[in-house]
């Protein structure tokens, strides 16, 4: 066994000419890798000769260096006692955040999925929050995703026996407790040290399916390993320009027991998310963005950095090949118009997810629930409503949202950010409670609309006309008129002495 | 006569093993009752060995202990002089509330029903306010209930002789002064010491009907007893899993002279009201929530606590039985779709209330006025518009709201919270004024739409197209664009000296 | 000539048993009149034995005492030197108002009609502002009146020769410079000492017609006298229960040269205006409200006080009688549905004003412009579009509003409050500028829509579909979701030193 | 060579009787020109006998004095050393602005076109900002222009090969990199010393066309001279009452190589822009507004001042003459209804711009994108969709806006203010970045809607129903109801000590 390297040894290689970095106690020579780094060389050079673990971890699965860096560049263990720990600058924003964490609300005070988001916003690192919470352009689609559910209202049946409510269903043949799955979201370790594995455990506890993201912080195998026997997982796939790599991923997933392949079709290029870009600006340290070397704009955000391998040339022609390399059911994730659903049926895939990628790709793309309302009547008209499984994701926050989607014809819904926020704020306990709250809401709401089982859900239970009339934007506000208007106000409190003179009345007398 | 118990006697029984409590000067052994308490044992144990009267009162009718606790557990009178009075913690919120009560606006400053709500919000106990004012989930339906009336506009007739306006009508055969009734709302003593009896008196004064709630703070008989001879009352019924209990209640009500049986059909389970749940969190004392013993989440709110007896299995099959056990007219309260109105006619009941339970049950359920606009054209088309009496409730705040409902075909409307708020703030005087204001508005507005009597109201007097187009949600706001916009502002005041130089003009000259 | 009375003489009669008051230097014995006073006796008794001029003036035309108080009760002149001047209480609100008047914006800073309202709100007496600015109930119709114009958009023609623009038209045969008239509004002296006469002068200057209100602060003859030769005025009529009085008024108006009789048909009872009522509460002094003696609620506002004579029994049957007693054209003011326009044509009147009385009567009554859009297609279909002159009023603030009304078929529009506000803030100069601004806007906008004359206006120049779909109310706001949302923000300013290090750029370099 | 004049020489001519001014170091006798000055004589007299360069520059092209002032009045050079420099008053607003400039955000922090506007608002001179940012009346149309794009949503195609995206197209035969052009906007030097020439350079860099404004601060030739060989420019034309002047301008433009003549047809009179007028009020110095001599209202704003030559008589009859005097393609700029597009085709022009002049002319005129949605279906129905090139402008801020216009049938879009704001804040670098951002957005968004080239864009890619239903204005807000409502709030933070007792959880544990 060779002797350990010292901090001083590594520190000598601190330039683009010779660049060593330490990750998890081991040194690596990344000099030749610098120009290939998807996040740009600058971000690596910031850590040249130093320990980069903290920066490396949330963005790279554990096996990244093994997979992508030639063994000859693995320089072996470092005696971490000899590595100088750099003093960090005082950051008043970070200090304030740590204070907020001290005071964060107890978990039991979260009564719905929005509550986790409110807490997460206060306690997450700024850049992590920006990455998770951001959407494309003006974030209109991102917000529309949830608000679109408010265009659908219930027409409940009364006097139905709902003593026993069964909210279980099947998705791609798997029996689940409730019709949602944990959809794929990237970089889970930004929010919580455990990363996606935390979601695996939550999904197990509530018997729902987890979709494993291509861009996970944990490696695929770590996430599979975290599952208990019999627990079902799916794989979300960004298709690599190099189809051999893709093929290996797919075959490996199938071999490991994955039960569904969700090919993302709405991301030939990952979106511009300005909130993310802005948060990166003053923080070259977390600057993982560039697509082409050192001179790129230093503010592209995490999304662009990690996605350069995705093939923008992916097209319908590729689908038969996918069908040929796996027996897993194939689902197209990100379909957004009825024409493409019909084509998906024709081409023989097993499902589609009507999705706009959480509002992170194309702004003013329509919500999944709206596309669903466009798709299902056409399918029914053509007798195709069972030809394929239809899922939606985006904006699901309440069990009522799930019910609306199912009434309109979805097989299930994907939920992403809410579980990330629950995890970021409270870890597994947060994920567990978030799912438990959904079940509690679901049971109650099925009772209240008069449905004892998923099979009872149907379009007659909702009024979805609000989705039919196009997107409403009101006339810009009449500033002058409004500010001249003297709004009505309620009764005024009395001055104290006046009240005293009058003597007690009403509630006062009651005390 | 046995000697009185002392405080010390009772204080010895302060655990789950032996639990005595004092209520209204009498001791009770509730040890065996602990596991059966609908509100959970924890809340009782907090008062084990102590006086629980203050906590007991608003939630339990007087006769509760007589009815549900075996005589053998009634331990007799306690010498209250010997009972230690516990010092209460100082509570700055409560102190601020008491100060607000000192300054509360005089009753005559309330000019409409919203005014009572504004005052009540300031002067009610936090938990009582939370129980009354809360709705399901995001409280969207709760607010929609009133705002839906703003989708209906008037088409008044002019040049009609309206010197004499008669706003009286009949409901289930009873002549009333104005077409509203006091609908059933639970736990009246949370707002006012007198509870539902206060509403009885108000209803009498204005000759309108009171619907007595199953979950009243006062007992059914107390409320009946408070009525004057000839005063008509109805009973709202939550159907018990044990039909024998239900039968007794119905027969008793009929025997006592109740003139209508309103069976609640929209509450197989009482709703989650997060505002209520949140208000309970820090207050185990008022924690009356659990459904199954001690380990329940301590924040379910009052509603869940008191409703475990309700039968979620109630269905259309049960209706003939109800028709068989009483001669009172039967009305289904909480119908929400035209299909169920047609079925109600078929099954032979005498009326329906189109209601979403004040927005407390299913969020994004439609408002009563909207369902009415769906129902009546179908009934008219089928010649059934007089086959049944149709009522609505939810969101009625103005006489114009009542008029809109009647124009669209309702026989009358139920009003709940506004009278609770008036009562909570000002007692009977508040209820009286609230009703008087409605009458004043009603008379004026009937004149203004050109209707001299209720019979003159018809659909041609309103434009209800706003209810027909589905639920409108606008495009999420363009944050960046709006914040960059430099809004117009009006004329600017002059600096003082500039004005002085110019000399007086306009109003100044007039002084 | 009898010697003058002294202050001491009058002061002896300061009770309900013997009540004298001084008005404009003369004493009156109003003891017997007390129970008949429409505003209640209380308000008079406050001035018993004292000088009531200041309170009397804005509410009563000069000739009131001559007309309604028997000559025997006119006690003659008072030596005002001998009348004690009462010290007024310091009123901080009033002091603040006087300060605001010192700083009020110069007139030239008012660029539109809203600007006058903004200034008036700051400088008018609270009760006067409340009387002018208030509307019925929630003031929804009052605001809808203007905002409804924003539902109508232009479809301008280009490349039309608009060098010369002629905006003159005729109304009931009178040629006017621009198609608006000054509509009738009550109690002009509340806003300005000169009262309605100020509007007479403004109307003259701009050659538009003034409609004289029944409830003017100036007497009818004062207003007629203020007109210059050839200046046209109309009369707005509230019909008295005593038709003889009404007949006298009509005949007198015709004799004096009035050119149009506008019978108000939307006010069988004057509306409840809560802002007005609330402002009166603490001010018994200006308490002119009661309908039946002393014990009335002391907060009914000015409107109710002055209107008890109005006949709520007025009906279509009365119209032939009006046609028989005058040769003036008769116009029904306040028609609100197409059916009543058709009936007006049938009954033979000469015009209608589609109006909701400035939103002061029935809340959620439709705007004039909306009713117009309902009426005209029906008239055109029946070939009746020229059978009658159609006017609208309510919410007109911009020349574009006038143009929209005329495009849709109105002959002209009435404007009320804006001139009151201009007058209240700046007197005649304000009224003059307000009208001049409208003319300036009108000329420009006729050019911009490609209309060289009023005859060029037609429905094809507007897109009025926004008026056709009913009244839109959006789904209640998703409070939790919105507050959890982290809105986008623009670029952040740099800390000062950072900018300094970087050196100048952009605009900085330019300085 | 004559000796230079001195400051004292000039200072002697400081009245209306003899008025000399210095501009760029040369003296001019403008005494006789005073009454003809479009901006009124007052503004010149303010500088009588003084140096007027600073005021003169942004509003007048360099060659103005040569063109419009007789040679005999050019008095020759002034020795500027002898001219007294006037101390300026301290202006706290201006001082604050200069401070804001010190701290202005670095250019790279601008991620979209709205960001430039936000910065410009902070750093531009108040009057310049007011001139650029203002719109007609209530600025409703100005804001609608952008918000109308939010009524159009995408229906993207997935699984299209978008590896290579070609966003180039042709406009009037010229190949451009991206389908927008820099539309004409007046007075470029108000925002930046270099004026329109700055835009010329930006347009060159990104290979897009610049439209040269009639009312440029730079002279036409300066702007043409600034172009590089082969760079294409168009001319925007306000037609002069004197057609000979117009003819000369057109012929000169053609001779200099202009490739398109855009005749403005929506401005027979330049609009009232109240924000501009208000900003001028206290600043007679920049008071360039009057149309007829000295006594005009001193607050008409820049627009009215510079536009008195425009011919309001321009009509369809004139178009053949234009076609006869030039071979440049003629485009009508400002068409607003389908009827006029059809007429444009009939009359033989080559294109139209559907535009409302940036919301600066007629308020509540419809947006270009809405008119486009009206026009194209009619053209397609009549087989005329290629008969003419259709452009739109107004409100374009995002590449998605451009894509929506092109999907609906536009050949390209004009962008004005955003480049002015970018230039005003950051000069050429700002313009460059603004255009680069649009290209970056455009490439991404074409990928995301599944269009590899401009030819792939078609109406099926958008859902434009939101443009079809008329203009939506919601019911005025229910003030009392809203203020009584107690909105939901999220989980509350704990007091510090409570949290400390509980010990760490969630994120805290992670630290």
TrEMBL record, chains A, B, C, D:
Required cofactor names: FMN; heme b
Catalytic activity: (S)-lactate + 2 Fe(III)-[cytochrome c] = 2 Fe(II)-[cytochrome c] + pyruvate + 2 H(+)
Chain ranges of the Cytochrome b5 heme-binding domain: 2-79
Source organism superkingdom: Eukaryota
Compositionally biased region (Polar residues): 282-294
Localization, UniProt: Mitochondrion intermembrane space
GO MF terms held by the record: heme binding; L-lactate dehydrogenase (cytochrome) activity; metal ion binding
GO cellular component: a single term: mitochondrial intermembrane space
Keyword Heme in annotation: yes
Pfam families: Cyt-b5, FMN_dh
Subunit architecture: Homotetramer.
Protein name: L-lactate dehydrogenase (cytochrome)
